[in-house]
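Design job #97: recover the sequence.
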């Protein structure tokens, strides 16, 4: 199964697309591949505005995002849908862009997947995205923002955000995202998700220069990483493997299951 992930930092931090498809493959559920398209601090509606061309990854020069989706013929197109933007002053434009991207995914022979992202969420925006999913017939929905809410409510002391950058997930937050996204991609949750994931850490200038030099001489073997700009390759290369303890992993898998079930119930006629 080939997947294209469209978005900004919510998608690329910790190599989320790559780690999600690897987790699914490692769980023995199915073999997946991932590509990434967009830019840092980029939003779906901005990508579709007339004349937009400042992509940082995944969209060749002279091509539009819609062309990339149509030409790629992906099985799944994962859209980084942001509840805050859906509820904001540009919400109508944002939701219209989401609808256009869903249509492009289907026209290329694939299915859209909603990645409900963001530590800072909006309940009003989340409801709007759920309504949009229902109206657009999107059944593959990863309720990551809602899962974070449920986990925080039940275990307020669990660190779900990265202490180095609270806008990014910690190991626990990353694992929760991977659980939700794996289920959305497959239509069912793998029985057991891998407990070890790679977490990005701040990279000091000296080490960044060292890694850049090494990568320029020997690019990454992974096609996913090789297609990224150098600065993202460096972050990936500097990532550290961390293993989640079993009680926390079991708790977070249950939270993901609860969020998925709640979303399915909200989506039902």
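Job complete. Output follows.
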């Amino acid at each position: 199964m080939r997947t294209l992930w469209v978005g900004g930092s919510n998608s690329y931090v910790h190599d989320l697309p790559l780690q999600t498809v690897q987790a699914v493959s490692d769980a023995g559920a199915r073999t997946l591949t991932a590509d990434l398209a967009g830019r840092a601090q980029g939003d779906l509606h901005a990508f579709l505005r007339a004349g937009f061309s400042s992509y940082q990854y995944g969209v060749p020069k002279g091509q539009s995002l819609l062309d990339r989706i149509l030409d790629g013929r992906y099985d799944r197109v994962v859209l980084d849908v942001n509840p805050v933007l859906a509820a904001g002053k540009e919400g109508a434009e944002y939701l219209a862009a989401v609808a256009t991207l869903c249509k492009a995914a289907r026209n290329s022979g694939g299915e859209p997947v909603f990645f409900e992202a963001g530590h800072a969420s909006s309940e009003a925006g989340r409801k709007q995205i759920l309504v949009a999913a229902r109206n657009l017939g999107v059944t593959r929905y990863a309720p990551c923002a809602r899962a974070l809410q449920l986990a925080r409510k039940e275990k307020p002391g669990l660190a779900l955000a990265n202490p180095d950058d609270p806008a990014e997930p910690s190991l626990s937050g990353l694992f929760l995202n991977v659980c939700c996204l794996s289920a959305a991609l497959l239509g069912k949750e793998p029985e057991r998700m891998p407990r070890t994931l790679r977490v990005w850490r701040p990279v000091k200038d000296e080490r960044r220069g060292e890694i850049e030099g090494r990568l320029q001489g020997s690019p990454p073997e992974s096609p996913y990483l090789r297609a990224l700009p150098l600065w993202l390759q460096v972050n990936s290369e500097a990532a550290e493997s961390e293993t989640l303890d079993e009680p926390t992993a079991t708790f977070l898998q249950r939270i993901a299951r609860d969020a998925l079930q709640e979303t399915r119930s909200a989506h039902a006629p």
